[in-house]
Amino acid sequence: MSTDRIERKIILKAPIERVWRALSDSTEFGTWFGMKFDGPFKAGARMRGVIVPTKVNPDVANAQKKYEGIAFEITIEQMEPERLFSFRWHPGAVDPAIDYSQEPTTLVVFILEEVADGVMLTLTESGFDAIPLARRAQAFAGNEQGWAIQMTSIEAYVVQTKQAQAT
Amino acid sequence: MSITGLAAGSKVTRQAITKHLRVMERAGLVRSTRHGRERRWELRERGLREARHYLDLISKQWDGALSRLRSFVED
Fold first, then answer.
1. Percent of chain A predicted with pLDDT > 90
2. Number of CB pairs, chain A paired with chain B, less than 8 A apart
């Protein structure tokens, strides 16, 4: 198994122009991803995105709430209409105290292919081997903290329920 | 393992292997020690485990994002 890249494929039952718009229009991208960008995407553009809760899924919106307002820098690489969209960013750059700008980036590529029942979308993100391991380890520290919070609320819920039953 | 050992039977050049190993060393995936004129390389098991765990996490985040994209374009 590679430690450098991930790949995901999904079939979207929608016309290719619809999928392309959802990826290439920065407002639409932000709506499902949970980000607000400071302008339209265009090849070579260096842009800033701010995390905002997604409007698509309320549970995810809640989970993103703690990162709300955190700014990301992304550089658009290629835009080939209805075929390919790619950008570079700093994965997991959610600590406002760290200047990530001098660190290596990963490359995110979306490839669209028309298939019988819609669009096959292939997503790859690569370049993780160049990211210092210490930086990568921070990602699960944050995540496990997230789990710890979840566990605490479950615990609180269980305790409350038990007390309610006892009385 | 030495670079000579790693390059044996492979079409990749020693220079290319060294370059990749340096990147992996900076990332904490491998470690090297000098034995006389030769440098020997070994895997850092813990680093590798952490790196895979990290990729699993990133993959899960993307799974979530892609399923939101699906609801967004299919509705």
1. 48
2. 97
- Distances in Å between the Cα of B2 and the Cα atoms of A79, B29, B39 are 42, 16, 6
Residue bearing tokens 């000579």: B4
How many domains does chain B divide into? 2
- Picking from A47, A44, A49, the residue whose alpha carbon sits closest to that of residue A33 is A49
Same domain as B55, residue B33:
no
Question: Do B36 and B66 fall within a single domain?
Answer: no
Q: Does A33 touch chain B (CB under 8 A)?
A: yes
**Domain identity same for B23 and B51:** no
Q: Which domain holds residue A117?
A: 5-131
Nearest residue in B to A33, CA atom: B65
- Distance between B21 CA and the closest CA of chain A, angstroms: 10
Write out the residue range of the structural domain in which residue B3 sits: 1-43
One domain, residues B21 and B54: no
The pLDDT tens digits for A67-87 are: 788 888 999 999 999 999 999
Model-level pTM? Answer: 0.76
Contacts of B72 in chain A (CB under 8 A): 22, 28, 31-32, 56
Locus of tokens 């028309």: A114
Report the domain count for chain A.
2
